[in-house]
Amino acid sequence: MHTDQPLPREVKVIGSAALLGLEERACDLGLNQRLDPAWVRSNTAPDGLHYLWPALWNSLSHRPDVPRQLRCELLITLRTGDRVMSLLDVLPGDFTPLPRVTSREEGMRVSRLLDRAPSVREWLLREGEGPGRL
């Protein structure tokens, strides 16, 4: 990837199995922004839709063997029906083939939801579970 490459400006939509796969990959690579795959498996809506919105390029200067990643805002649909926001570092080769939202209106709706959704940490505190569950 070129350092001057622009940030992708598209919202991707994924199912729970794909989200779990991305979280597991981020965990296996030791990327900075990720959730515990066990938490994702037990808390995401099995048939839910989740959204990724690239926020910035990230690289691990102390680990030159790991390619640069897209740090994405992640909107997660939970089993409870709640939506929460997290961050997820995704390799560009994993991000590019994901399906994108089909309309500008859907993208705008996701943007508004991301702005209003509590973080996973805030949701855990509200539910009385504490952030140690991640």
Helix-strand makeup class:
alpha+beta
Query: SSE order in H/E notation?
Result: EHHEEEHHH
Mean model confidence by pLDDT: 90
Strand content: 15-25%
The biggest beta sheet reads: 4 strands, antiparallel
Shape: globular
- Report the radius of gyration as a whole number of Å: 15 Å
Our measurement of the CA-to-CA distance between the termini, rounded to an integer number of angstroms, reads 31 Å
Helix content: 25-40%
Describe this structure in words.
The chain has helices at residues 16-29, 37-43, 92-95, 104-116, 120-126; strands at 12-15, 49-58, 69-77, 83-90. It is an alpha+beta fold. The chain has a four-stranded antiparallel beta sheet, with helices on both faces. The termini are far apart. The relative contact order is 0.20. The model has no long low-confidence stretch (mean pLDDT 90).
